[in-house]
Amino acid sequence: MHDDTLQITGHNALKAQAKRLRKALADSGTEVSHSRALELVAQSLGARDWNTLAATQPNTVGGWQVGQAVRGHYLGHAFSGRVHAVSAHAGDRQRLTVDFDTPVDVVRSAHFSSFRRRISALVGSDGRTVEKTSDGQPHLVLVL
Question: Which residues are CB-neighbours of 140 under 8 A, at least 6 positions away?
């Protein structure tokens, strides 16, 4: 991409731009597919194609970004780790997949253990799951 290009960040912003472009073209009598609109947006920003442009954009949803360091509590156990994947869901919720730096024992029994290195959870903008343990604590609580 060229240094003199307009910078729009994030996949969602770029896709929204393509949607607006597609509608504007349709309103003027030129129908284009969504993929063609994505290519046109990429080229207008100085990228060779959509894939090249998309690869330069942060994968951010709801303030969470792939690779971001996080810490908090999972099933009552303190952890630190990194966001492995993030996707938007209804309302203000996001599905986060977190890779723990050190595996977390997800069992409270003294008789056996089950360690997890990666978990997925649906969290709100407050970094907490709606789902709770039997004692009323959220499954996942992220420190914001």
Answer: 72, 73, 74, 96, 98, 119, 121, 123, 127, 128, 129
